[in-house]
Amino acid sequence: MDKLNVIYEDNHIIVVEKPVNIPSQGDKTGDLDMLTIIRKYLKEKYNKPGEVYLGLVHRLDRPVGGVMVFAKTSKAASRLSNQVREKQMKKTYLVIVDGKMESKTGTLEDYLLKNERKNMSRVVEEGTKNSKKAILDYEEVIYNEEINLSVLKINLHTGRHHQIRVQMASRNHSIYGDQKYGTRGRGKQICLWAYKLEFEHPVKKENMVFKVLPKIDGSWKILDGSILEEI
């Protein structure tokens, strides 16, 4: 990957842009991951001997890029992880989906069941064994009638496996470029981007808000500059 894009850093946390197609943490592929990349950055920047502590607070799916926060101390890791558990950390995504939504804003609620063997999830009936409730809000940013694609802002209330991808696909609004659940844009990069992260600083207790917009190329060209200023 190119040089690490550090958005914010202090003694307690580091906020970075995760590029697409890089794992949040090491996996069975053995490919370079964000934890390894950031540890190397910290070790070199501060000339640290031995192992560098870095806490993984939340994850993004491998094909998804955007803003992530990591903890530089165990205390920060514990406090940020608690915010995730208590649903106090707010994550907002930009996504391009097939078709036009039935309404410009809405809330989607489903029960999702993960298939570990296939590494996929699906919508199931409430009460299905091992299913988990999934809730998100969406807001239409723009609809392009010519190509029948919509750009949405999505706020997650729960962090289920492949949640946005599954909930949108189950309503025939699959994400453009989604290789697992999609109907359009196969072979292209998935148009799902974690563009905004909001949380309380684990030590200073200040409200922190960070934004990173996707590069306006490929499928993202549906977004023009004037729209970006409003997001």
**Number of self-contained structural domains:** 2
CATH class of the largest domain: Alpha Beta
Q: Which regions are unreliable across 5 or more consecutive residues at pLDDT < 50?
A: none
Task: Say which CATH homologous superfamily of the largest domain is assigned.
Answer: Pseudouridine synthase
- Average pLDDT figure: 92
Relative strand content: 25-35%
Helix content: 10-25%
Topology pattern, helix = H, strand = E = EEHEEHEEEEEHEEH
Total count of strands: 11
Question: Mind summarizing the main beta sheet?
Answer: 11 strands, mixed
Q: Cα-atom Rg, whole angstroms?
A: 18 Å
Which class of secondary structure composition applies to the elements? alpha+beta
Q: What distance lies between the first and last C-alpha atoms, to the nearest angstrom?
A: 27 Å
Number of helical segments with 4 or more residues: 4
Instruction: Assign the CATH topology of the largest domain.
Output: Pseudouridine synthase
- Assign an overall shape: globular
Under the CATH scheme, the architecture of the largest domain is: 2-Layer Sandwich
Overview of this structure, please?
The protein folds into two domains: 1-86 and 197-215, Pseudouridine synthase (2-Layer Sandwich), CATH 3.30.2350.10; 90-190, Pseudouridine synthase. The protein is globular. The model has no long low-confidence stretch (mean pLDDT 92). The chain is of the alpha+beta class. Strands 1, 2, 3, 4, 5, 6, 7, 8, 9, 10 and 11 form an eleven-stranded mixed sheet that branches. The longest helix has 13 residues, at 34-46. It has helices at residues 34-46, 74-85, 163-169, 225-230; strands at 6-9, 13-18, 55-56, 65-71, 90-98, 105-115, 120-124, 132-144, 149-156, 192-200, 207-211. The protein is built from four helices and eleven strands, in the order ββαββαβββββαββα. β6 and β7 (120-124) form a beta hairpin. Helix content is 16%, strand content 34%.
